[in-house]
Design goal:
Layout (H helix, E strand, L loop, with lengths): L6 E2 L17 H4 E3 L14 E5 L15 H9 L11 E7 L5 H17 L3 E5 L5 H12 L3 E6 L17 H6 L6 E9 L6 H9 L3 E4 H6 L1 H9 L3 E5 L21 H13 L5 E5 L10 H17 L14 E8 L4 E8 L5 E4 L7 H4 L4 E4 L1 H8 L5 H11 L1
Parallel strand pairs: 2-4, 3-4, 3-5, 5-10, 6-7, 6-9, 7-8, 9-10
Antiparallel strand pairs: 1-4, 11-12, 12-13, 13-14
Helix pairs in contact: 2-10, 3-4, 8-9, 9-10
């Protein structure tokens, strides 16, 4: 399959690059699709940027279709996060004749990139594209975790056409289903209501309020480290830090916190795609939001090129193993601590028929505090939620 047929080149003529002997910008390090017939070679590529100029899933935020090129204007001015930073920018996906055509093309392209073990940074566009991202893993037959950085749950009615407010329900409704777990990072209760909060709990999904995450960013790191897909709605960032949004709020993550979450995603060995959605240049001030997203991508790249390769999926030899007995020895919980990064995982037992499919998710990222809780003869909430999901 010739991926170039799906893309149109991007123009970077408006970018004012800084050039001197001590400074190399990202634009100079990237292989960017700028001219017909010069599509980047994907051999030995590990990281790719894909622009999707589709705002069809956000009727009240149609200007988000213009986001990818505006983000590039600021991204490619930035200095290299590491000296050996090399990646490709495949340009912007050509729109289909219908929204459904575009959605199919997105899934097809992402599937081909993921099949080549290329990690993908998606510049959206509407957040409904996360559903298309998920469908790419479905084609691969890979069960996934999704982490959504969002002030809302997006659990609308799946009987209505796919949009930015119901994409999670569309994923849940898929059969066969390849979603293992969904985590929401930073929801705000007054945008969701108690019934949706209750529904997230009934689905055994992880949902953490904005204040809880801001008070404990270590917990946010475990949620992101558990994910194969991270979906970032820029509406999760407070309006003062990111004015380029149609439905902004005075409350939300600070820009620095978004960058920190992006770095958590980058350094995670498990994660293979991240998308930034709902940015609308029509509402932006002097490119402030585009600049912030560019910074977040920079931090993702810095984390990506500093991965420790310490996800203990296949080889547990380089980990310290701790067995904790609870209830006077009636049950034991296994914890693993990486000798490389000091990060923690807890193992959830499961011997069901889908064990092979679920294997990558049975070692759940956790914190030292979870280990301490088990030592106090208390079952960590994180472990218990996963155990219930698997064994009920």
């Amino acid at each position: 399959m010739d991926l170039s047929a799906y893309f149109q080149p991007v123009s970077l003529n408006k970018i004012d690059y800084r050039e001197d002997e001590f400074y190399t910008n990202l634009g100079a390090a990237a292989s960017i699709y700028q001219n017909d017939g010069n599509f980047p070679d994907l051999d030995n590529v590990v990281l790719a940027i894909v622009g999707i100029c589709d705002g069809s899933g956000s009727k009240a935020n149609a200007g988000c279709a213009d986001a990818p090129d505006e983000i590039r204007r600021y991204l490619y001015r930035l200095a290299l996060p590491v000296d050996d930073c090399r990646f490709v920018d495949l340009g912007n996906l050509l729109p289909g004749n219908t929204p459904e055509d575009t959605q199919f093309a997105v899934s097809e392209v992402l599937y081909k990139l993921l099949e080549k073990n290329i990690t993908v940074i998606i510049l959206g566009g509407s957040q409904h594209l996360t559903f298309c991202n998920y469908k790419a893993y479905e084609v691969l037959g890979r069960v996934v975790n999704i982490a959504s950085v969002d002030s809302m749950f997006d659990l609308g009615n799946d009987a209505t056409p796919l949009n930015s407010r119901n994409w999670i329900s569309h994923i849940v409704a898929q059969q066969p289903n390849y979603l293992f777990n969904m985590s929401n990072i930073g929801y705000q209760t007054y945008f969701n209501g108690s019934q949706l909060v209750k529904l997230m709990d009934e689905l055994n999904f992880d949902a953490y309020r904005l204040g809880a995450i801001q008070a404990d960013m270590v917990r946010a790191e475990t949620l992101v480290r558990s994910a194969d897909i991270v979906s970032v709605d820029i509406n999760s960032v407070r309006l003062s830090d990111a004015p380029g949004q149609a439905e902004g709020s005075p409350h939300g993550f600070y820009g620095e916190e978004l960058c920190r979450l992006a770095r958590f995603a980058g350094v995670s060995d498990k994660l293979s795609s991240i998308g930034f959605y709902e940015y609308n240049p029509l509402f932006d001030r002097r490119g402030q939001t585009a600049h912030l997203i560019a910074h977040a991508i920079w931090y993702f790249m810095e984390g990506f090129y500093n991965r420790e390769a310490d996800f203990p999926y296949r080889d547990k030899q380089n980990y310290k193993h701790f067995m904790v007995g609870l209830n006077d020895g009636d049950m034991e919980i296994s914890f693993y601590k990486s000798k490389k990064s000091d990060r923690w995982w807890v193992e959830v037992p499961y011997e069901g028929e889908q064990r092979e499919q679920y294997q990558r998710h049975l070692l759940v990222p956790c914190t030292y505090a979870d280990y301490q809780q088990a030592q106090q003869n208390e079952v960590p909430e994180l472990w218990w939620k996963y155990y219930q999901r698997l064994n009920n």
